[in-house]
Amino acid sequence: MKRIVKTCFCAFIFFTFIWAFYCDRSYSIESIIDDDFISFSLVNEESAGEKDLFRVLSDISKQTGKDIIAESSFFKDGEKWHYYFKTSNEPEFINISTSKGTDLLEENECFTNAELSTVELTQHKLNTTADANIAIFPFEQLSEQGYVADNCLFYCKEKTSNELFASLEKCGFEVTSYTGTTYSHDENLFVELIFATLYLTSVILFTVSEAKKIVLMKMDGCSCVDIVADEIFAELRFAVCFIGSLIIATVLIVKVIIGYPLLSYIRETAALYKTAIYILILSVGLRLLITASINKHKYVKGAVPLRKLYVLSNLIKSLSLIGITVYCIYTINAHFLPAYYEYKASKKYLERFGNRVSIYQYGSIEQTIIDDQNKNLYPFYKDVCENHDAIYIDSSEYAMNSGTPEWKMAEQDKPRIDVNENYLDSSYIYDLEGNRINSDSLDPEAFNVLIPNSASEKDIEDAEAMRRAFGIERTNLMIYDAEDYELYSYRTNGIDADMGMMMPAPDIYVYDYHIFESVQWETSQILYGKLYIRTQTDDPEKELMPLIKKYDLEKTIDRVSSLNEQIEEYLRMKRDSVIYSSAGIVLATLVLIWASVFSSDSYCKNNSLRIAIEQVEGMSTMASMRNHLIMQTVIYVSYFVIALISTGLLHYDMRFPLILIAATIAVDFMITYVRCQKQAYKNLYQIIKGDK
Hey, which end of the chain has fewer CB within 10 Å, N or C? Predict the structure, then answer.
């Protein structure tokens, strides 16, 4: 039994160190802009869109002594990059370590953990445990890279925000701040707690099994503290060597190999290590408590307190059932089902919209209109639609704001999406007679609107208002079946999924050629990642560059981004989430199976003679195990009630939890029955003779 305790202890401590390093790889990116920051956006009506506003912002930052940072993420050569742009007034403004020894940047410097071949700046190494590509630039580089101030999201320290915002407003900026923390670092400790449960369970059962030794030591005058202390000191050398080797390995990896500051690493992973320390303290407390409760002299004769072990095993089993159920209900609804649906949706999305790229512009929509680029954008759009099967979709109303869908905040009955004719040919939408609606169903002289049969009169009124705004004489209104449709979007921002089928059924406004030709604002929208152009080569930017030059859009289009790469990155994230969740469920299931087996074995050993006699008399296994099965039934009923309450509190669909509950009870009952039957027939002849 002592070997089991040591094995569980090693597994718990080893996993804590490994899990801490794993969590820190993502934390190292998030900690650049952490909970101390507040986000805000800026508008300057007098000089909207001017790139030199970054210089003005930099000057304001220097005058106030308060730093500003902006961030951007995008794909480059198939890899995701995280770009940060910061002013350099306050040392340790952000939580980073660099080969320069400071986080302050000159205008000709940058920090990065990867090589930037396209940037003519002095590059200093960014020390981080993160495996993602990160680059930190001087604030002035925002204008060099084509950004515009009124199209950026900025961050500053929350405690200094009031002073900074006041200075910005004095200089003519309209500041909009966003409440709430930027990131949340609430680590999911459940997997660590599974190993902790295994360790604590082994400590409890080991202490009970040592009843004879404990009573003898008490008879020799030892106190409970002496008994536990002797056991700890006997294994202290092993524990110190094991933990010490893990500490040395961690220091070598973090400090020597990666070059990351140990203090930063300790601060970022402190929650996990503190939990481990608390568990170790709890194990000592449990050992003392159980040791104090073992006082019966019959244990000296070798009797093992099986009844106490049986009660303990049932208690552990009950807690395991509740824990695994709550965790599984949450995991299935929050991870498995979304990942499953998103995976299916992404596959369909790739089938229909794969091998495409989206385009992004320099600056803002206003700047595009000011520069009179729409005269070039429209023929470009028409060309890529006709020759590159370009699809347009704007599903921005599916965004969530403080947990509420945007269309709900605008008091609309239904969300709305904007698409072009090509998109309809790639989707499957049917009218009430079962006929498919596609580009052939459109009226080229009207404003085409598809409304689900669940729509209200207000939806029709909104469509008419939009028709009048576009200056179109009439509306071609088509009703589609809200139960029989397939509409997919990339990054709908999460009503049903971040990427996938759009639910509920939206109102669909079809933007024909003449809408883009006549409405400048809508024409500029195609440069915000809403137009997906089909390409044929492995270098889509090179493939599209002749077309971009043909319409004189080199100064308007910033970059070409592969949709496939974005989706693959998204799927990798989901795959990691599923693997992590699966590991947690498997480990929790092992605890449950072990508890079920131990509980059944304990009962059979406690009642071996009675069970053997009843078996000889022809009684069934179910009948001879009736007391144990009644106990399990009580546990199952309690477990069922708690599971349903948990499901209701989490507002999850009841179907999957009910299936999970039924499956858990069936599997656990099968394990219980098989073990009881095996123990009942084990050594039956010897038991009848009087041997136990």
Answer: C
And the tokens for 631?
A: 């106990």
Residue 692 has pLDDT above 70, yes or no: no
Q: Alpha-carbon distance 199 to 5, whole Å?
A: 7
Task: Provide the token pair at 615.
Answer: 């078996």
pLDDT of 406 reads 64
Mean pLDDT of 115-122: 80
Are the C-beta atoms of residues 549 and 394 closer than 8 Å to each other?
no
Rounded to whole angstroms, the Cα distance separating 170 from 71 reads 25
CA distance 389 to 372: 26
Of 222, 204, 203, which Cα lies nearest the Cα of 213?
A: 222
**Residues whose CB is less than 8 angstroms from the CB of residue 33 and which lie 6 or more positions away in sequence, other chains included:** 69, 71, 84, 94, 155, 182, 183
The per-residue pLDDT for range 402-448, each reduced to its tens digit, is: 455 666 666 666 788 889 998 898 888 999 998 999 889 999 889 99
Rounded CA-CA distance 284/262 in Å is 29
Find tokens 């079809």 and name the residue: 510
For residue 122, CA distances in Å to 93, 96, 358 come to 21, 18, 31
Residue 16 CA to chain centroid, in angstroms? 20
Distance between CA atoms of 231 and 217, rounded to whole angstroms?
A: 12
At 553 the pLDDT is 80
Average pLDDT over residues 140-159: 76
Please state whether beta strands 154-157 and 475-486 pair in parallel, antiparallel, or not at all (unpaired). unpaired
| Residues 182, 516: Cα–Cα separation, whole Å | 37
Q: E strands along 18-120, which residues? A: 37-43, 69-76, 79-86, 97-98, 109-112
Residue position matching structure tokens 């701040």: 177
DSSP string, 355-404: SEEEEEESS-HHHHHHTT-HHHHHHHHHHHHHHS--EEEE-GGG-EETTE
What's the confidence (pLDDT) of residue 494? 38
171: its two tokens:
């200089």
For helices 224-251 and 2-30, the axis angle rounded to 10 degrees is 40
How far is 487 from 426, CA to CA, in rounded Å? Answer: 9
Q: Tell me the pTM.
A: 0.58
> Burial level of 284, CB count in 10 A (0-12/13-18/19+)?
middle
Most confident among 86-90, 211-215, 306-310, 558-562 (mean pLDDT): 86-90
Residue matched to tokens 């999911």? 188
- pLDDT band, residue 185 (cuts 50/70/90): very low
Look at residue 207 and give its three-state secondary structure.
helix
